[in-house]
Amino acid sequence: MAFRGNPIRDLKNSIVSAVQSYSGSSADFETTFRNEEAGKISYEYFLAKVDPKQVIVRDTKEWKEAQWRIWVPVIYVDCSKIEQHQIIHRSDRSSSINEVLEKVIEEHTKMYENGTDSYPARYGTDPRLFLIVLLPFKITIGPKWATAILPPTCSEQYKSKLGLGLDDEDMALVTHTIDLGDENHSSRVEWESEWIEWRARTARRPQSTLKKAFSKIMNKFKKGGTYLTHKDK
User: Fold this and answer.
1) Residue 75 in 3-state DSSP?
2) For the chain, where are the alpha helices, taking DSSP H only?
3) How far apart are alpha carbons 18 and 192 in whole angstroms?
4) Closest CA to 118 of 12, 9, 4, 13
5) What does the pLDDT look like over 50-67, one tens digit per residue?
6) Residue 34, helix vs strand vs coil
7) Which contacts (CB < 8 Å, 24+ apart) does range 108-116 have?
8) pLDDT tens-place string over residues 82-119
9) Contacts for 204 with CB less than 8 Å, ≥ 6 apart
10) Cα angle for residues 41, 128, 86 (degrees, 5° grid)
């Protein structure tokens, strides 16, 4: 059976139809799809949702890497042809535009999981990973899920659970999917635990503590300003 569907195009069309219906405008809302580096998206739109507890320590090498190694599928919708009141706080609508577009994501998630006449199940990108941005109003919907990077080295328990026989240097190729809708979801707890355990394994003592320890060691070997040496018996 030949499949010719385009899931992203279909999702974009469904989003436009929903915005048109909600706003009461037949305007041709332009949409743009881009795979964005997490660091290029406003912090509150994505990374704040992925790592609210800051298990990846900010201003570290790992945090900088997270911003370019985590990718986010984004659909931008140009709503400049309508007024703000047509899309925000509409008293004549029982649902908000966010709720309407969340239903669109749910519908396309079912299509993704079950397949359609146009494409097989799990073809393309999972709709739950998408971030939708309505411009210029900066209204955001999603993502429901995120694929986040793991620490440079993972616990043997994690590798065993997923059946990973990878060396530590190969772990950079592995990502972990997090359910962003539940802060206590097992996927989030497991991901946070891996980062916390990694930080504990790689902890470095403060420089001042090291200096004190070094000073104590040196004092043991000093006497009268000279170093004691081993005497031949």
Assistant:
1) strand
2) 7-23, 47-50, 61-69, 97-114, 156-161, 186-201, 207-221
3) 36
4) 4
5) 999 999 999 999 999 999
6) strand
7) 108/7, 108/10, 108/11, 108/14, 111/7, 111/10, 112/7, 116/5
8) 999 999 878 788 899 999 999 999 999 999 999 998 89
9) none
10) 70
